[in-house]
Amino acid sequence: MTGAAGFIGHNLCAVLLRRGFEVWGLDDLSRGFAERVDWLRDMGMEFVKLDIRDRDGVAEAVSRIRPDVVVHLAALISVPESFEKPELYREVNVEGTGNLVSAANDSGVWRFVYASSAAVYGDPVKLPISEDHPTRPLSPYGETKLEGERLVLRSFSGGGKAVSLRLFNVYGRGQNLEYAGVITRFIERVREGKPPVIFGDGEQTRDFVHVLDVSEAVVRASEAELDGSDVFNVASGKPVKIRDLAYMVARIFDVDLEPIYADPRPGDIRHSYADISKIQKTLSWRPGISLEKGLLELIRADLNRLS
Fold this sequence. Notes:
Layout: H1 7-18, E1 24-27, H2 34-43, E2 46-49, H3 55-65, E3 69-72, H4 79-84, H5 86-106, E4 111-117, H6 140-155, E5 162-167, E6 169-171, H7 181-191, E7 197-199, E8 205-206, E9 208-210, H8 211-223, E10 230-234, E11 240-241, H9 242-253, E12 260-262, H10 277-283, H11 291-306
Parallel strand pairs: 1-2, 3-4, 4-5, 5-10, 6-9, 7-12
Antiparallel strand pairs: 8-11
Helix pairs in contact: 1-2, 1-8, 3-5, 5-6, 7-9, 9-11
């Protein structure tokens, strides 16, 4: 598991460890958190501190571990930063992925699961977005995730084939501003007694999926019998208006706060939500945690942490 100290990574590692899997976590800790590694080690995870750009180090680690499945989550994920540092994003998200695929091929890894992103689609030309939607990313981040995905699907040679999971807006405990940032910002504002700020008219839609549902999708993608390498959307399949999300957060906090509306941000996509029929049919996966339930648990955990 690369990116084991990140938001999705540490949640997924915990799920796998609780189910009795042997888990090796890889992370360079440049953006992940060491305390998550300590917690996962206490649960039984083995850990290797490693930068996926280190080709020889990646080859040595994978050769020594000899995993059945590689789950590749490590990536740089900030869209604004990707415009400032496009070469860095290519080094990590593309070249680092290539290093891992090469090492997996040399060590006889059976299945390679790659965490891709809905950012590969760009501005939707049809809704809901299915896996055959045109891929026209709008940022260097999206471009590098698409390059990484194509590299994995084209180059991985293991008998279990490769799976790319195109994740939509993932949220849950341990999230940061890059993941489902609007949820994080709404919670922070309302917790402080301030109204949530909406950029635009609030009618824009997004598709939010809980990190534990994402974890289950990864587990199924790791174990399923497949005819060949494939791509799947991982999402709720339900559009949520940003305005409705703001009121939902305020309602859970039991406060009466009217949102503040600000100018739309340049480049923001108006509507985005997924068609998840393919993953439902092929991997028998469907999201089990509603947005309201997920927000309730997240806000309760946040309040308990502060109390």
